[in-house]
């Protein structure tokens, strides 16, 4: 059944005050160009796209089974209309079970669930010296190993530490096979990062975190990202990255986009939760291991948008960084934008940027 909503609509050409009509896809947008601050109507934005989701609603992706569906439903209630379910470094059998469940969820979207686009394989191809909150099951990758995992679920992103022996050649093999490789959980140098990009790597996993930092004589992996990256993901919970560092990255990386790196604690009260095989604690807005290490987040994408606006981005720019750029990164021309023919993934926000409505491929929550 066709629906129509009115307000300040963010289109690829700019703001329009008028009406957007849709069923599962957007059929029409009509109205006049507008400065959205000139009236008191709602903001109508593309649904949020989160490419790094470990959990939510008390459930963790590594639980397998129906956990991914619970996670997709929790994030949908916060405006995320599509996502990548993200694995952790773990024993091979655990990863295979998780990917099989992700593959099932990706094949069919359930009512009230965000679209699961596929998997982000964050581990196990990382540096054991830069685990962050990942358990110690890191191992080197082979092309055959990756192809075996890709048979279980669509692998949309693969995080790799390029300095591990054999990984630089693998980055090129994966890129040549059409897979999207990110640099992350890495002790590599600036030169390692630059070489990985030249071999076909596409971006960086949770920029600044679990990688070598920027020093003026040793620019590190952060320096490689700031100097050369077109895309990188960043966690804007204002705990993982200082607002000043976020603004630095915004000046350097044209299509910096935001992720939550959310855990089972997302949408839940303070307490203990699982992240893969590890116990984590949600307290004071953060999620940490017992030793205090940040272990993912409890962030949702609607709060990510508000945080970006809070540090000085205008709403259109913030919207692109929680939606459009992630779609562009995955090559999805029909998501992350409000335009005729695109999926009707739509969020409606009031003047305080609080969610009023979410539409998932035309389905209203």
From TrEMBL:
Gene3D superfamilies: Metal-dependent hydrolases, Urease, subunit C, domain 1. GO terms for molecular function: metal ion binding; N-acetylglucosamine-6-phosphate deacetylase activity. Substrate binds at residues 133, 209-210, 217, 240, 294-296. This is N-acetylglucosamine-6-phosphate deacetylase. The active site is at 261 (proton donor/acceptor). CDD domains: NagA. One of its GO terms (biological process) is N-acetylglucosamine catabolic process. InterPro entries: Amidohydro-rel, GlcNAc_6-P_deAcase, Metal-dep_hydrolase_composite, Metal_Hydrolase. Zn(2+) binds at residues 122, 185, 206. Residues 43-362 form the Amidohydrolase-related domain. Its cofactor is a divalent metal cation. Pfam families: Amidohydro_1. It comes from Duganella phyllosphaerae. Transmembrane segments: none annotated. Keywords: Carbohydrate metabolism, Hydrolase, Metal-binding. Binds 1 divalent metal cation per subunit. The gene is nagA. Its EC number is 3.5.1.25. Belongs to the metallo-dependent hydrolases superfamily. NagA family.
